[in-house]
Design a protein that fits this description.
Blueprint (H helix, E strand, L loop, with lengths): L5 E7 L16 E6 L6 E3 L3 E13 L2 E12 L7 H4 E7 L2 E2 L10 H4 L10 E9 L7 E7 L6 E4 L1
Parallel strand pairs: 1-10
Antiparallel strand pairs: 1-9, 2-4, 3-4, 4-5, 5-8, 6-7, 6-9
């Protein structure tokens, strides 16, 4: 029986101007926020995740990408987005490190919140960028599936 593994790859063009300054605080400074017009939806047996938007922040002089997704649990037991999906960001063909921000973003905190059957919530993940001009690839795949279907935008 085929297992489903879905990899979503999307290229986000980050053409940001005015990001060269650094901040002395631990809180990020919102530089730019964009939404991509076409939708990506990954629907596997027990859950679904869909891309919402991204924003570029600055944290102590380092550009940070925050990606927002909506997670839905379709399983009979509670689950969370972090247990179901690997989310990675690549820039210049190199995986970006996770970023940890002190801005207490609700969607970021939701990555580990349990969701009951048929429940949904917005989640977010943050990554340190090398720069704000090179394209970024977002990759999302289920943790426990071996076969895949690919969606691109």
């Amino acid at each position: 029986m085929k297992k489903s593994m879905v990899i979503i790859t999307t290229i986000l063009c980050l053409s940001i101007t005015g990001c060269s300054g650094s901040t002395a605080t631990a809180s990020p400074t919102n530089v730019e926020s964009k939404a991509i017009e076409s939708s990506i939806n990954m629907d596997i047996t027990d859950s679904m995740i869909s891309y919402d938007k991204f924003e570029i922040l600055e944290n102590e002089g380092t550009p940070v990408l925050r990606v927002y997704l909506t997670y839905t649990n379709n399983a009979d037991k509670d689950s969370c987005a972090m247990d179901e999906y690997y989310i990675n960001v690549y820039q210049n063909k190199i995986q970006c490190d996770s970023a940890f921000l002190s801005d207490e973003n609700v969607a970021s905190d939701n990555m580990t919140k349990g969701v009951l059957k048929d429940g949904s919530l917005q989640v977010a993940a943050e990554y340190k960028l090398q720069d704000t001009t090179s394209p970024v690839t977002l990759s999302v795949e289920p943790c426990f599936n071996d076969d895949f279907a690919k969606q691109e935008m």
